[in-house]
Specification:
This protein folds into two domains: 2-168 and 341-354, Glycogen Phosphorylase B (Rossmann fold, 3-Layer(aba) Sandwich), CATH 3.40.50; 178-330, 3-Layer(aba) Sandwich (Rossmann fold). β4 (88-92), α4 (96-107) and β5 (111-115) form a beta-alpha-beta unit. It is built from 16 helices and 13 strands. α1 packs across α7 (169-184) and α7 crosses α12 (263-272). The chain has 355 residues and is an alpha/beta fold. It has a seven-stranded parallel beta sheet, with helices on both faces. It binds uridine-diphosphate-N-acetylglucosamine (UD1) and uridine-5'-diphosphate. Uridine-5'-diphosphate binds next to α1, α12 and α13.
């Protein structure tokens, strides 16, 4: 049996190709949801839109401090793994769900497979960086998306035979859903937007939105963009960002803030945007795949491949640096190659889990 552990929005989206492959091959698998994300628009909507089976178990851990969340996940997952004794447990990405899921499994001598292994921002103040490093070093099979990730893993002493470069499952996910998204989502006309004539924004990272000066810097940068280009700036806001925006009472005049949207809608918004500004990992990859220029609202990125091919640029979090990067990316040529693989990562991962 394969145990698929997930808990947040990006994990549902990026695990979906693996889940679909297990369903297609009629494999014995079980899904464990930690409940780290639980709001309808951060969780259930993705199962519905992607037509995925519902997890057999949901730990309902909810929100909390890092230690609280991690501890609850460890206890809950251990109980289920002891009962089910899967041959392998799969985790995806860099959240608390990933680190705790991998740790619970390895302590029970259950093989761990880490999907999207080997990403590094080299910034250990980020919770995601700690989660990735821990998950990579306790995993038995490391599914690296690119050669860059394989190199980082080898540099940290991880044995070559554990690492498999399979591509990133986000390519599978985009390919599998873009056409459906075009047929089923009419979000542009619902929002009164014209293709190529708006900016799309996401920002939710704790290092940005939990810090007033940084969050205000981002919002002020977006206002400058709105003034200079006279195009709508659309910001589907993550619940964490919404909480801090209200707490800090940051003025957002001119920015169109909306609730988070479903994946089918978001794909449409991303592929038709003039440009995307984001601090999300997945969004940096998707814009690169979809051919939309991106400015990353961070001081570093664990997706250097996007910068190398020319789809993405670091804009940091100050109004002037955001504006400068935006001007440069507005002139981007486009036509870059997709460095994240051919869209068959899910099939490769499932094949390797069984061999
Ligand atoms: C988590 C991940 C982050 C990832 C992001 C994806 C960690 C440490 N962080 O951050 O790497 O990029 O998910 O979206 O694992 N909340 C809701 N409803 C929800 C979930 C959260 O309202 O369904 C609110 C709560 O106020 C909560 C806050 O958002 O306190 C933060 O949630 P949490 O799961 O701690 O971290 P994320 O910021 O979502
Ligand atoms: N996404 C979505 N609706 C939104 C914003 C984002 O479906 O309103 C999707 C997006 O397409 C991407 C994923 O959420 O696949 C990224 O998740 P997030 O930014 O929360 O996490 P990260 O990738 O930074 O870990």
């Amino acid at each position: 049996m394969i145990a698929i552990i997930l808990g947040t929005r990006p994990e549902i989206i990026k695990m979906s190709p693996v889940i679909r492959e297990c369903v297609r091959r009629k494999l014995d698998f079980t899904m464990i949801h930690t409940g780290q994300h639980y709001s309808y628009e951060m969780d259930e909507t993705f199962f519905q839109q992607l037509e995925l089976p519902r997890p057999e178990n949901n730990l309902d851990v909810g929100s909390g401090t890092h230690a609280e969340q991690t501890a609850k996940i460890l206890r809950g997952i251990e109980r289920i793994l002891v009962e089910k004794r899967p041959k392998i447990a799969l985790v995806q990405g860099d959240t608390n769900t990933v680190m705790a899921g991998a740790l619970a499994a390895t302590k029970l001598h259950i093989k761990v497979g880490h999907v999207e292994a080997g990403l590094r921002s080299f910034d250990r103040s980020m919770p995601e960086e700690i989660n990735r490093i821990v998950a990579d070093h306790i995993s038995d099979i490391l599914f690296a998306p690119t050669e860059v990730s394989r190199r980082y893993l080898l540099q940290e002493g991880i044995p070559l035979e554990r690492i498999h470069v399979v591509g990133n499952t986000i390519v599978d996910s985009v390919h599998q859903n873009l056409e459906i998204s075009t047929k089923r989502s009419d979000i542009l006309s619902e929002m009164g937007l014209n293709a190529g004539e708006y900016f799309l924004v996401t920002a939710h990272r704790s290092e940005n939105v939990d810090v007033k000066e940084r969050f205000k810097g981002i919002i002020d940068g977006l206002k400058l963009i709105n003034d200079e280009y006279e195009m709508p700036v659309i910001y589907p806001i993550h619940p964490r960002a919404k909480k801090f925006l209200e707490l800090f009472r940051i003025d957002t005049t001119g920015i169109h803030i909306v609730p988070p949207v479903g994946f089918l809608q978001f794909l449409q918004l991303e592929s038709s945007a003039r440009m995307v500004l984001t601090d999300s990992g997945g969004v940096q990859e998707e814009t690169c795949i979809l051919g939309t220029p991106c400015v990353t609202l961070r001081d570093n990125t664990e997706r250097p491949e996007t910068i190398d091919v020319g789809s993405n640029m670091l804009g940091h979090v100050r109004p002037d640096t955001i504006m400068k990067a935006t001007r440069m990316m507005m002139d981007a040529e486009g036509g870059w190659e997709n460095p994240f693989g051919d869209g068959r990562a899910g099939a490769r991962i499932v094949h390797l889990c069984r061999s």
